Every structure is written in C-alpha cells, then in structure tokens.
Amino acid sequence: MNRRKLYWVLLVPSVLIYIVTLILLPESKKNYSVFIILLFWIVYYGVIKINDLKNKRRKL
C-alpha cells in the first residue's frame, strides 16, 4: 500500500472518531479528543516504518 492510500485510509476513520468524541465527551473532557490526532500520526508513521523494514528484508 502506498503512502497516499495509507494516509487516506487512516485519516477518514480518525477524523470521524475525533468528531464523535468531541460530541460525546463531557465539556470538561473534550481536550482528550486531541489525542486521537496524535494517535493517527503514531499509527501512520509506525505502519510506514514496518512496511519499510519488510521491504528491506525482502530485498536481502
């Protein structure tokens, strides 16, 4: 899977989850919804790193 496709596959659900958490969380806890954006970037770069390692291993 190329990076652009991976980006959009992960971005759409994370934005939806972000919006839902903004709606459902109480007013005092809405700040925690920002962690979903951070989680998106962690997962995105993690998957890219794993794919790069797998590609290097195949070439050896």
Describe the SSE topology.
Layout: H1 3-24, H2 34-59
Number of domains: 1
Strand content is under 5%
Uncertain runs are: none
Strand runs, count: 0
Multimerization status: single chain
How much helical structure, as a percent, in the residues? over 70%
Q: Helix and strand succession? A: HH
Q: Distance between the terminal alpha carbons, to the nearest Å?
A: 20 Å
Could you explain the architecture of this structure?
- The chain is built from 2 helices and no strands.
- With 60 residues, it is mostly helical.
- Helix 1 packs antiparallel against helix 2.
- The chain is elongated, with a radius of gyration of 15 Å.
- The two termini are 20 Å apart.
- The model has no long low-confidence stretch (mean pLDDT 94).
- It has one domain.
- Keywords: Membrane, Transmembrane, Transmembrane helix.
